[in-house]
Known about the structure:
The chain is mainly α. It has helices spanning about 1-5, 10-20, 25-45, 50, 55-80, 80-85, 90-100, 115-125, 125-135, 140-165, 170-185, 195-225, and strands spanning about 225-230, 240.
Amino acid sequence: MKAEAIHTPSPLRQRLARLYFGEDAAAIRFQFALMVIDLAIIGFFLAGPYLRDRPSYLIIDYLIAFWIAAELFAQWTISSSTRRMFAKPIVWVDLFVLCTLTFPQWLFNFGFLRVARIWAVAQRPVFKLMLRRLGLREQVDVVTAFINLFVFLFLVTGFVYTFFFYREDAGTGFIDAFYFTVATVTTTGFGDITLPGTFGKLTSIVTIIIGISLFVRLAQAIVRPYKVSFPCPECGLQRHDADAVHCKACGHILNIPDEGL
């Protein structure tokens, strides 16, 4: 009896788990509120170059740090294993973001990593639920590919701005960095804005290679037929046509659940 009491989840842990992962009305409202807060935080990050000289900037900065720390604590509380929690990439993103917010004077060079929180929005269960309710269930892959490209564009923009345009006027420097990133990723190559030195050339090379890959993935997600994620119990093939009866790889009979539409 004593051992069972030790492993029984606390009421707080049960409630948090239900709010974070449930699909009842209260959980949906909670997850939606978290998503709205995430979007507001991302908006602050994107506006950072224009706000960094204002007195209120550091106040908002530390408030966001407190919020992210509270979220990490909540996730640790409901996690079944600390090791499993730290195996999630988004947790490490939040930790890096938290460090840049807590020590902005020393880690300002890594501030561009804050944009990666855009990716966190797409990881919330409510995100896919909202897409289904909006009738975009078949476009989940397209939306995910677009978000990955969007995150990459702004990560590179932040990196280029931090290391090459930071000393310029905040507005002009950020726009120049974004303009360079888009021109480089699309291989337009106007040549009116270039990054100096060997480091600049290496940055351009990496941006082109990864950017083209993400563009190709987005194009594939747009044109390929809609498939569902359902692992075949026989061979493990992960994706199948929505109306598939047999696995294309091994012929095993599938029982793919649907919504009766």
